[in-house]
Amino acid sequence: MAFTNITDAEREGKGNVGQPDTPLLTTTEMQEQMDSLTNLAIDKFNNHIVEISLPSGAGNIGCEVPEGITADTYLQSVINAIATEALQSVSSRHVHPNKTTLDAISPATLTSITDLIAMFILISGVDTTVSGDADKLPTSSAIVSYINSYDWKSKIRDSIYPVGSIYQTTSIDPDTLFGTSGHWQLVNTVDSIKTYKRLS
What we know:
Blueprint: H1 8-11, H2 27-53, H3 75-94, H4 99-118, E1 125-127, E2 136-138, H5 140-150, H6 152-160, E3 166-169, H7 174-178, E4 184-190, E5 193-198
Parallel strand pairs: 1-2
Antiparallel strand pairs: 3-5, 4-5
């Protein structure tokens, strides 16, 4: 339903314009005649409130289309376009080759990141160690020491390539890449592609 306005036909004969100097109207009729335009405006305004409250109301409100969005110049079209963009973004973010790997390492990573964030809440001073005191801000060297001691590299490596995993490469071997020694066995070479199996 489109918004409706007050037409000339609806205004015709209402109000005091066009009345003779001495209107041949009763007191009640005169009051009704004087209030007719005001009442018409009130009725149209109330009707507009109903129209704009309907699910289709946003389809009648004009707006400027934001840059980067393809839509018609009314509110409902822009909302639909933004919703479509958001759904596509969510789908793209959650459907990718590394999702299984990221899901596998998320619990441990989330715990560590949560611990780090907690240290920046209600900061009261600077600490040279990561002591877990939530109101102290650790120095950059303390944070680096904490992260290094957590051994992210091996934890992520173990999540991505557990024992028994296969790794293929045309250049650097996995022991060199991951900083391990004797954990991988070369099992096959085809057209310069080397296949390794993780033993431990």
